[in-house]
Amino acid sequence: MNEHWACLVEKLERSGLVRGYPFQPLGYSYFLRANTPKPRLGNAFQVGDALGLATRDMGEGIGAAIHSGLLAADALIHHQAYKVNTIPRYSWPSRLDLRRSVG
Ligand SMILES: Cc1cc2nc3c(=O)[nH]c(=O)nc-3n(C[C@H](O)[C@H](O)[C@H](O)COP(=O)(O)OP(=O)(O)OC[C@H]3O[C@@H](n4cnc5c(N)ncnc54)[C@H](O)[C@@H]3O)c2cc1C
User: Global pTM?
Assistant: First the structure.
């Protein structure tokens, strides 16, 4: 990530859009989609970032957070299994030539 940041700053400098500005970048980490997320631990249902559902290519986790919340609610209300394998792992599977939801 530092490498990407350094490239961006260098590009801004080179293009003359921003020169000599003392950027102070901050970071925030969250997990991207794991291969085998464990959505339920006993009576605890994990959703969204807590489960690491953000897409592997774009890091988008808002849709997955909502989707997993709805699935968890459904599982609770209807006493069903709680699975997240219908939630897409990639934002742009077609561009990456990948299947949309796996695991
Ligand atoms: C800079 C940045 C840009 C992003 N851009 C995008 C984007 O464009 N599109 C996209 O889809 N995703 C994006 N994401 C990812 C997306 O924000 C997250 O994946 C998504 O918000 C996860 O939702 P969540 O409800 O699981 O967690 P959160 O949105 O983090 O919500 C968790 C909430 O729980 C609260 N909380 C934590 N601990 C406690 C506690 N002990 N008691 C009570 N409350 C607590 C927190 O304050 C927070 O409000 C971005 C993330 C970052 C950091």
Answer: 0.82
